[in-house]
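Record type: ASSEMBLY
Status: queued
Input:
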Amino acid sequence: MTARLMQGDEACAEGAIAAGCRFFAGYPITPATEIAETLSRRLPQVGGKFIQMEDEIASIAAVIGASVGGAKAMTATSGPGFSLMQENIGYAAMTEIPCVIVDVQRLGPSTGRPTSPSQGDVMQARWGTHGDHPIIALSPSSVREAFDLTIQAFNFAERYRTPVILLMDELIGHMRERIALPPPGTLDLEQRLNTRVPPEWYKPFENFPDGPNVNVPPLVPFGEGYRYHLTGLHHDELGYPTNRPDEIQPWLERIFRKIDRALSDILLYDIEGLENAETLVIAYGGLARSARHAVKEARERGRRVGFLRLKTIWPFAEEVVEHAASRLHRVVVPELNRGQLALEVERVVGRHKVRRVTRADGEMIQPAEIVAAIEDLERAV
Amino acid sequence: MKLQSESRVHERYLRHSKKFPNVWCAGCGIGIVLGTIIRAVDDLQLEKNDVAMISGIGCTGRMPVYVDFNTMHTTHGRALAFATGLKMVKPDMKVIVVMGDGDALAIGGNHFIHAARRNIGLTAIVVNNVAYGMTGGQHSPTTPQDVKTATTPYGHIEQQFPIAELAATAGASFVARSTVYHVRELESYIAQAISKEGFALVEAVSYCHTTLGRINRWGTAPDMMRKLKDQSVTFKRAKTMSEEEKKDKIVRGIFAQRDIPEYTRRYDEIIAQAQEEIG
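Status: finished
Output:
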């Protein structure tokens, strides 16, 4: 395909089509509306279906219903809508239904500043729904990466039978870049695992506690002869409600195990310049562009700076950060919030090593502010 | 003779892997509604693989777990929205959505009117017990005025939502109301609803003796049945009655029966149009 000018939201929508997404349900909201608009036009062209629901709660519900019917399914929203979706995201986590939820973050809380970039939903992506559950969240830093990580989000959702959140931000969503998309046949696409057992043996929540695998039981779509039950209640291996701790605990351990044992596959990041570095900058999403610029500038001024850009936000890349920061005394974490992912960095490397550079007024952090933080630390030593 | 053959029908559709007894109180009408759904599906000779039953939260929400269909017990109020997604990707599947009155009309009220307006081919069955049963008898959008509930100890002052009339106004293809006393009629309505292509609603009134029955001293489960019998009038009869006479009556009958294009069929036309345009 020839290169063309594309918006981040549009690249996300095209990524969904390329990933095999054939169902989208959504509700208009700035700055994610363009994803819905693009898919309302594109999905029927490829035989897929688009529906604008009455609200975001209904949108995520329809997405889960469509996924149970066998379709790769997605919704897209921003902070206020993401808040509304949380209960049903928990339902998807509980019933292990693959789906992709795009949150093009805008400044909050509440209505906030709808057209301003933000990274304020990092913790909501992790803990927005009630109860303990694992989650995968990815955050792109460019228009091309919005395309790539949307595909990756679908692959993870299907491979690990889990909801996956694509944490975009207004900057990436509304930014235009000239990009070339890969030809359709060249992509590595995950298809849903099907069962080999006959219906009478099928257990939609089967658990092999001692197996070496990550333990993802196949999910057979409704209507294919495997009549089973799904519920948001705690359930046994057949899907029927249970109050027994000896059935709840193994399930809980399995849904965490399937993510924890696959970290080498799930954790995506770029790391560079760690040799001889004295300071490490950790950034993600749209703000990573500012951070990259700052790292370059600081190096030109003679500073030895390593740069870690996280594409996978959740699960948090604990060991990667721990390893990268082990020899260093300083870690700078710029974020468009009051320091949400910095909390995780501090937990791993120790509070005294971390310098937060935060801004939550709707404006970008300029590279100079990050450079100043790097140099401030230099002087502090 | 008839009873024996009916229990065999039920046996074919209930899940044997699911431990009984069920969660409902003895004398509850929800089991009667489940029975009518099973017999309707059997009468229509539907394949179990082609039937999905989806519910929300509450006493009625527990219905799908017992039947051998594709079943899904979803979140409070959202069953119709989940069902919408499933129906769109499986348009040929018969998707039956069972809800209570609180589930369908309070927390799920928005989804209810929009599913009807969209005329998507779902069969919505609302078991209307005019209260929240599972949480102990709080007032719901269908609780009659003056009735005492767990959260209206001095009497209820809000107006009732008329479920059937609401669905008919919102655009449903088929709308009917009956009660769990009028089982044959209810069964016929449910069969007609399942057969209808567009959005179909059946309201089944079924009083809860455990909560409102006890709080208001309405009596036992058989007393609830008598109450349903005495209170209800047919649609035809209601037409001859004054507003004052109709007050406190349950009007049974078919409220809407119209042929309007079903949503997923219309969407197939959209797909054809979009594909034609790109060539």
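Annotation: The two ends of chain B are 62 Å apart (CA to CA).
Annotation: The beta strands of chain B are 51-55, 70-73, 94-100, 122-128, 131-132, 138-139, 174-179, 200-205, 232-234, 250-257.
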